[in-house]
Amino acid sequence: MLHRQDLEAMDFEELWLLHEELTKILAEKITAEKRELEKRLAQLNQPEQFAAAESGAAETGQPPRRKYPKVVPKYFNPLQPTETWSGRGKQPRWLVAALQSGHTLEEFRIRENSESSDRNAGGRGHS
To answer: Is 112 left (phi over 0), alpha (psi -120 to 50) or beta?
Structure first.
């Protein structure tokens, strides 16, 4: 290890060569450290990339959407029994029209133990 006195005893040429050698060694060490950090970062990001790719959010740059549980329909259209509504979100057009014509929401409720709940269990129409 060089001491301060040794450095001060060196002439300009020797100091410049030492400076160049130190710069070269530091650059190599910095590059190796950067490569190692990038490798670790890639390993940490891998699960997030798979989740984003599955949801299609990778192309849009948005975070992946949260997964929500399947919601059972609560209301159905008697004129088109495959059209159902879970009671969440915007009301479908058929329900809005029926409510405006004087019907009540309860008239469209799917009964738990009735034939209509079996008939509409798979329906997801929302027009």
So the answer is: alpha
